[in-house]
Write a structure and sequence with these properties.
heterodimer, A: about 300 residues, Rossmann fold, Alpha-Beta Plaits, 2 domains, B: about 290 residues, nine-stranded mixed β-sheet, about 40% helix
Chain lengths: ~300, ~290
């Protein structure tokens, strides 16, 4: 089971939900349906889950994208590579083919058009993946290098890494980037379901609506958790009801939760009532999965 | 003309609440821009009504002419983005995954694939209820090029500021340190970093500062939720001093931020005590950028 935690708006509590729900699930590993939990932080621009999970990274791998390397000795300055690049990542100077790695999308067109093998795609570091483990729990963090823009490429490779490294009978929780642009889409698109974390304000609602549109376009099932809940924002309630969106729980706004969060502590311990929300989410997700499996068989 | 960009790294640290409060103070003397193009919220509180709307195109998107396609599958094999789907022996481009590189067009033996301009989003110019002019945009769902859309909003806003002789452009930035954040910082004169006294807030702020530092742009810092975790606050203050970042002000943890949004008011309209704090911060930013 792959569950993506996303939001639209930043700062709604994706990381809080991802970390605390993962830790709740870890206690359920004896459940027949899975043997362990993997928490994967795909918020590659600002990954924060490690603050709460406090792992000792056992393994760090560099992640690369491919960018063109120029071989001067083969080049005839025919300009085909420059002309074919739709991202302006190459420019021809009198004695040099200049490359702009941050603009390169790694599409391989320049290498393909070069008639003299003067362009070869070579690895260029964009970020790092670190992995740590404890009993029935894996933590994987993906972090983008500062100044680098290839967040979607890093997210894609991180997901490939997860497919390879995490046992298939583990539940996988993905902490995703905010927004609805390419990074968020790359992070959520291969999930079985998405948990959207929102807050009870007009900003929360506006950005939730954008996220819902995105997930519907991707045909992904989803449910909502409302965080920092103090009082109802009727427009949000109306919207959720009208659109028939399931709400798995409301996490109250409480100073003890904010303080625990600020110090990098899990909420499950300081506010045990939250476990009811995880319990409910867990059983609802299992229901959704069973329905899906039935539909697939049909 | 000077551009002041509000950023935070971490989402939800209070960027938009502060930006809209500054908008209420500056009125028509400041021009506004919202660079959070995939989840823009500034226009909501400011009740922005647009008087100009344009479609924004950037990059390309492949289209397959089914009549010419001979189902050879070359395009699908070579696409680096898995953007070509095969269904019932026909090939389709998934516009969400297509990055518009043109490899498929190049390898198609029947010239069945053409590249068309990709519509990335909508661009708006609006009037706010505080008499500011706001430049903002809405990225299409799943569109690439959010950084290019940010750059376009910025370019148009700066042009307007020069023409109308407005001295300050105040921009509300996106979270993160990636593509749209980099476009937001590019060409700015001053960055206001909004952080909070949590380990996450501090970690995100350090990554943001590393980015801003690459651009050698001066910055100041607002510590939001300043009394939440005094230990983290000490660490933030130490970091500011060590890195020569001026402290613009501290805002205590309070519920006026969400409550004011729910009432569609700016924080300084809603809470008189906050108004005093925010006014002091705004004056500091203003004086720093005279």
């Amino acid at each position: 089971m792959k569950i993506a935690i996303a939001s639209g708006k930043g700062g709604t509590g994706k990381t809080t939900v991802a970390c605390n729900f993962s830790k709740f699930l870890q206690q359920r590993f004896h459940d027949n349906s899975f043997k362990g939990v993997a928490l994967i932080d795909l918020d590659v621009e600002e990954p924060n889950s490690s603050i709460f999970i406090a792992p000792k990274a056992e393994r760090i791998e560099k992640i690369f994208k491919k960018i063109p390397e120029w071989k001067e000795e083969n080049c005839t300055f025919c300009n085909k590579c420059v002309a074919s690049c739709r991202f302006n990542a190459l420019a021809m100077l009198p004695s040099l083919i200049m490359r702009f790695p941050e603009l390169c999308h790694s599409c391989f067109v320049c290498e393909a058009v070069c008639p003299h093998q003067a362009i070869k795609m070579m690895p260029y570091e964009i970020g790092k993946i670190s992995t740590s483990s404890e009993d029935n729990f894996l933590f994987i963090e993906s972090k983008l290098n500062i100044g680098e823009v290839a967040a979607p490429a890093l997210i894609k490779q991180s997901k490939d890494y997860v497919e390879k490294e995490v046992p298939s009978n583990y539940w996988k929780i993905f902490d995703c980037p905010p927004g609805t642009s390419c990074s968020m889409i790359e992070a959520v698109k291969s999930a079985d379901m998405v948990l959207l974390v929102t807050e009870s304000t007009p900003f929360g609602l506006n950005d939730l609506q954008l996220a819902v549109k995105t997930l519907r376009l991707l045909k992904l099932p989803f449910a909502v958790i409302i965080n920092k809940y103090d009082s109802s924002y009727p427009e949000l309630d109306k919207y959720l009801e009208k659109e028939n969106i399931p709400v798995f729980g409301r996490i109250p706004i409480r100073q003890e939760i904010a303080i625990a969060y600020s110090a990098g502590n899990l909420i499950n311990e300081v506010y045990p009532e939250i476990n009811k929300i995880w319990e409910n989410s867990y059983s609802r997700i299992k229901e959704m999965r069973n329905e899906r499996d039935c539909n697939t068989i049909r | 003309m000077k551009e002041i960009v509000i950023l935070s790294g971490k989402g939800g640290s209070g960027k938009t609440s502060l930006a809209t409060s500054f908008a209420a103070l500056g009125k028509e003397k400041i021009l506004l821009a919202d660079y959070d193009v995939d989840a823009a919220d500034m226009h909501i509180l400011l009740e922005a009504k647009h008087y100009k709307e344009e479609k924004f195109y950037s990059g390309f998107e492949a289209v397959i002419n089914q009549e010419k396609c001979i189902q050879c599958g070359n395009c699908k094999i070579l696409c680096q983005f898995d953007a070509i789907e095969e269904k019932d022996n026909r090939f389709y481009i998934n516009p969400i995954d297509c990055e518009g590189c043109g490899y498929c067009e190049m390898v198609c033996p029947e010239k069945a694939i053409k590249m068309k301009d990709a519509e990335v989003g909508n661009f708006y110019v609006s009037n706010t209820r505080f008499k500011n002019v706001l430049f903002h945009a809405k990225l299409n769902i799943g569109a690439d090029n959010s950084g290019k859309l940010v750059s376009y909003v910025k370019k148009q806003a700066k042009k307007y500021a020069e023409e109308e002789k407005i001295d300050y452009l105040l921009s509300d930035g996106p979270p993160g340190v990636g593509c749209p954040a980099i476009s937001s910082v590019t060409g700015a004169n001053y960055v206001v970093i909004v952080t909070e006294t949590s380990l996450s807030g501090f970690s995100d702020m350090k990554r943001l500062h590393e980015l801003v530092n690459n651009f050698k742009i001066p910055c100041g810092c607002i510590i939001n939720k300043a009394d939440l975790n005094l230990k983290v606050k000490e660490e933030i203050l130490e970091y500011l001093e060590k890195n020569d970042i001026s402290l613009l002000g501290e805002i205590p943890y309070n519920k006026s931020f969400p409550e004011s949004i729910r009432q569609l008011k700016t924080v300084n309209e809603y809470d008189k005590n906050m108004a005093v704090l925010i006014k002091n911060i705004w004056e500091k930013i203003y004086k720093t950028n005279l």
